[in-house]
Amino acid sequence: MPTRSRNLGALWDKAERQRVRAVDMDALRGLGISSIRQRLFPQPVVRRLQHPHASMAFADLDSPEYVATLLLFYDNLVVEGCRRCITPQRLPFASDLIDRGLIVPLPLNNYETYGPEALNFLEEYQDHHISPQAQGKYVFAVLNPSSIPDTPDDRVFCRNCVSTNIRDTTKTVPNIDPEFSRAIDVATRALLDVPSPMMMRQLNSIRGDIRNGNKTGVLRLAAQAKAIGRLEYERAFESVHMLRLDEYETLVSQLAPLFPDLHTNVSEMVEFCARGLRVDFSPGMQSDKYLDVVQDYRGTLRNVL
Q1: Model pLDDT for residues 23-33, shown as the tens digit of each residue
Q2: What is the pTM of this model?
Q3: Closest CA to 193 of 150, 239, 143
Q4: Total structural domains in the chain?
């Protein structure tokens, strides 16, 4: 990465951290979601998130038909992307979607980690995306409102409590083999990924699995924590997460040993959805022309359903 881009990104990160830090967390936790957004997000983003929206990955921009079909049902899309996902090849389509008011980008890494093309893109649309610093404070404030009571079963999320509990429990177990240790590390990262109070409720389970040497139980809890984190993240942004069946098929063989009923449940869900309305991308139509049609009718099918 060129030094100039890295330096610019680092300065941007510093300025954004200072801006976000100046917003009092205790005050945020006493507000509703829309008010929290007003304090942290650019106004164009606040306006777009007022309308029904779904979430997707930046990599999904490789499939214009998928994007266009989603936009028939939702007014906007929240598009998440790490430094590896926001590539120069995807930026023209992303720019077209932003110009039409159809997406809100969520860069997941600090600005200094992005390449020059991605950084220029984010700078051009700095009033149309949510900074990684603002995301972190927003998600914590929404998921940990001041109304949460301080009880053993219902606690505000605390990274230190999660890490310390797991580390102290691990120390009580002699001769943990490397494979089991890696499983504990995976579960710990999953529990720390999203600052949800629901993660605190998983501590008793993982402590019991660690003490009993139950590696499968630890891995199952890690997968559950990732799913909880995903759902909680979507809840914070009030967006609907999409399950791409082509991606699910690549994961089912790994997840089936942990969740034996998974394939049956997903198959029933797919069969149920297949009975509903199916909307396909029109083959051969240019994506920009298709987006013109989508922009006129976005959200309309949702109201019909």
Answers
A1: 999 999 999 99
A2: 0.81
A3: 143
A4: 2
